[in-house]
Amino acid sequence: MDTGVTAQIRTTDVGSFPLSRVDLNRYSKGAADVEDGVDSAEATFFITKHNGVFKQKFMALGPHDSVPCYVQSSHTRDMVSQFLDPIARNGQGLHKENDTYHWTGSKILLTPENAQIAELIALKHGAKTLCQELDIEHIHYRACVTGPFEMLTRIWRGMGLSPRYDESLIEAFSTIVEHYMQNAHPETKYLKPLTLTLDEPSVGVTGVGDLFVDAESDPPLSHLISCWNQIYKHIPNGCYRGLHLHASPYHQLAHAHWNLLEAHLGVIVTQEWLANNGKYIRAAIMRTDGPTIPPNVDLKAVWNEIQAGNYSAYLQPKTDMMQLLKTATQRYGPERIPFAGPECGLGSWDWKHGDAMVLANLTRLREVVSEFNQTISQ
Questions:
Q1: Neighbour-count burial of 216, counting CB atoms closer than 10 A to its CB (0-12 exposed, 13-18 middle, 19+ buried)
Q2: Confidence band (pLDDT; 50, 70, 90) for 91?
Q3: Is residue 335 part of a domain?
Q4: N or C end of the chain: smaller count of CB under 10 Å?
Q5: What is the spatial distance between Cα 18 and Cα 3, in angstroms, rounded to a whole number?
């Protein structure tokens, strides 16, 4: 794949970040104003806060050899509501009440003009200044768009219904996701897309992914793949087409037109499966399930230490990250691993000093990848 990426592994991340020091209600209001083209104090607040956190994350990952994702919030603007809110606000078919989305029974619609991603608009505003501050020519970035199955799952859950596969609703959401993907790769002199990812973490997960079977004749999975492929058509040549999962992919997913698997620790595919299907994988080497706490310790005492700012002992050890990276390269081959990063987002680390712990772990990740790259370049 010709992406301009060197043979060495680059750092990346999934996106969500603990915004515990930000007024999230004002932040979300500002994001909505940015998406709707409203010039307001809240819009300026959002752009300033988003770009400030993005810079922190970018510097931790290493501005010269990383592909950072825009910053996602895990609360008032999570990975699903970020894309459903504009439908409820400016589209048709969805009504939002008390943070719950209800399908009105009518066609679900959103125009391409209204399918905006505030975080990328913010980066367009700040990319030139950030490049000048960090002495780099441009920012290679990762963007993610939540997929149609994940959107539909949120609707059913909010309405108190069990998961079900509805082709007409999947197609309606897919059309909207196409619009979002078309708007997910603004390219300027200072801002250039490199990875565009479809987030579908519920596919294959027990209780939700049970709607599918791993068979060539499985109608729901075949239908979903056809919808995904329409979405992937909107990703420019030269960009990785990512698929973010929380479970190992069904064999049939090899037919989808993604080429970069972004998955959790414990998700396993084979080197042969990747090579035969022209796929790559991001090495998940940083755990996101919480601090690294030894067994048989006083958890209350540990949390008191973390809350007091004495958290260094509970960061993920570099030796652990390095072992995970070595295992991944032995399993898949370094030629199949263009990126290494956290297994998922870190927005849930919203305790006191959680943001500092995230940045410290991302810095360790960068150091591990840099050390590893030195060994494979010799």
A1: exposed
A2: very high
A3: no
A4: C
A5: 31
- Domain assignment present for residue 285? The answer is no
Placement of tokens 């809240």 in the chain = 42
The answer for 45, left when phi > 0, alpha when psi is -120 to 50, beta otherwise, is alpha
Q: Across all residues in the chain, what is the average pLDDT?
A: 94
pLDDT at 6 > cutoff 60: no
> Do residues 200 and 244 lie in contact, with contact meaning Cβ atoms separated by under 8 Å?
yes
Q: Which residues are CB-contacts of 122 (< 8 A; sequence separation ≥ 6)?
A: 34, 46, 47, 50, 51, 54, 70
Q: What is the pLDDT of residue 4?
A: 39
The position carrying tokens 């032995």 is 330
Tell me the per-residue pLDDT of 299-350, one tens digit each, with 9 for 90 and over: 999 999 999 999 999 999 999 999 999 999 999 999 999 999 999 999 999 9
Please provide residue 320's backbone torsions phi and psi, each rounded to the nearest 5 degrees: -70, -45
Is the predicted pLDDT of residue 3 greater than 50, yes or no? no
Q: Which of 89, 62, 211, 76 is nearest to 150 (CA)?
A: 211
Q: How many domains does the chain have?
A: 1
Is 163 a domain residue? yes
CA dist list (Å): 197 to 38, 185, 241, 269, 287: 28, 11, 6, 19, 20
H or E segment to which residue 48 belongs:
helix 41-61
Gap between the Cα atoms of 191 and 129, Å rounded: 11
State which residues form the domain around 176. 22-55+64-278
**What pTM did the predictor assign?**
0.95
Distance (Å, whole) CA 250 – CA 224: 12
Would 328 be classed as within a structural domain? no
End-to-end CA distance of the chain: 23
- Of the candidates 282, 304, 287, the one whose C-alpha atom is nearest the C-alpha of residue 364 is 287
For residues 198 and 210, what is the distance between their CA atoms, to the nearest angstrom?
A: 20
Mean pLDDT, rounded, for 17-28: 94
261, β-bridge pairs? 243, 281
Burial of 205 (0-12, 13-18, 19+ CB in 10 A): middle
The predicted model gives 166-173 an average pLDDT of 97
In order of 41, 59, 71, the CA distances from 55 in angstroms are 21, 6, 10
Q: Is 306 exposed, middle or buried (0-12, 13-18, 19+ CB in 10 A)?
A: buried
Q: Is 160 exposed, middle or buried (0-12, 13-18, 19+ CB in 10 A)?
A: exposed
